[in-house]
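Hi again,

Forgot to attach this to my earlier email, sorry! This is the prediction with threonylcarbamoyladenylate bound. I've pasted everything inline since the attachment limit keeps bouncing my files.
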Amino acid sequence: MTTEIGKNIDEAKAHLLNGDVVAIPTETVYGLAGNALNEEAVIKIFEAKNRPHFNPLIIHLPFWNDVKKYVTYIPEHAHTLAMHFSPGPITYLLPKKATIPDIITAGSKKVAVRIPAHPVTLQLLRAIDFPLAAPSANQFGYVSPTSPEHVYNSLKGRIPFILDGGSSNIGVESTIVDFEGDDIIIRRNGGISKEEIEAVLGFPVSSATEASEHPVAPGQLKSHYATNTPLYMVEASSLTGHNHDNTITIGFGIQHADATFNLSPEGDLHEAAKHLFELLRIADAQNAEAIYVSEVPNTGIGVAINDRLQRAQHQMK
Ligand code: TXA
Ligand code: MG
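Structure tokens for the complex follow:
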């Protein structure tokens, strides 16, 4: 199969109507999309990615108003968050209707729903009458893609079309929020920070994102986002000590002016998030012995960055 890259939304739509999968741009990362109501299309997503079937998929819709077609109940707090953050990098876990195939949720009673904030993909979603199931458009376990070229490098020959919408602006995946009674639980840290969520709700929320072998949000598997070159996350103060001929160092802020690469010379966490996956891919292509990355301040979107770095770390087998 040849893989085309193009900007024609109608071409993406034609593949989707045909039951095929296409890569789509979002503000977080590129997604590998198929008709969420068509089990055969959904199976193609898992196959193209080599993704295990126990890992459920997020469905994407053009309007918050459409969510009620696919879920049985929307908690008040979900509405409140949606009014502030959707379209945007936030995903809601809500009780699913029977029309959502079990393969989407890996058997769970809840489905993950998101309204992405990307003009091209919103236009595509409005042009079809089904939700798009879309995991990140990378081979399972590798670094997520933030440009059409990243998708091409991972999935060429495995999918017919990549819809080009430029580089992703946010650069880390959506924050996943779960609702249990009146409790709100962050299942994955992402583009919207815990602080932003708490500011809107006016009360503290909890996090249950611990890496484990049987996670509630299975993207929380410990080994994920991994480079082929062993990667180590280190304290900011020790990064410089890892500068050697055969290593790559990735720093943050002016303190790391001597690093091989810098996530944000100005020390801006949003800029760091935007460049994170691209820099990991570039570093991985250098044939170095090891990649050392500085942790970033653990606040705001920095929490999501540190989470991805932790999961990208070399696992002692
Ligand atoms: O920003 C994003 O969310 C991107 C773009 C493409 O929208 N998508 C993305 O998908 O990151 P993926 O498949 O790489 O990660 C989805 C995460 C996984 O950790 C999965 O386990 C969790 O969402 N998830 C999906 N459905 C779930 C469910 N029903 N219950 C719990 N976790 C779920
Ligand atoms: Mg992923």
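The first helix runs from residue 9 to 17. The chain has a mean pLDDT of 95.

That should be everything now.

G.
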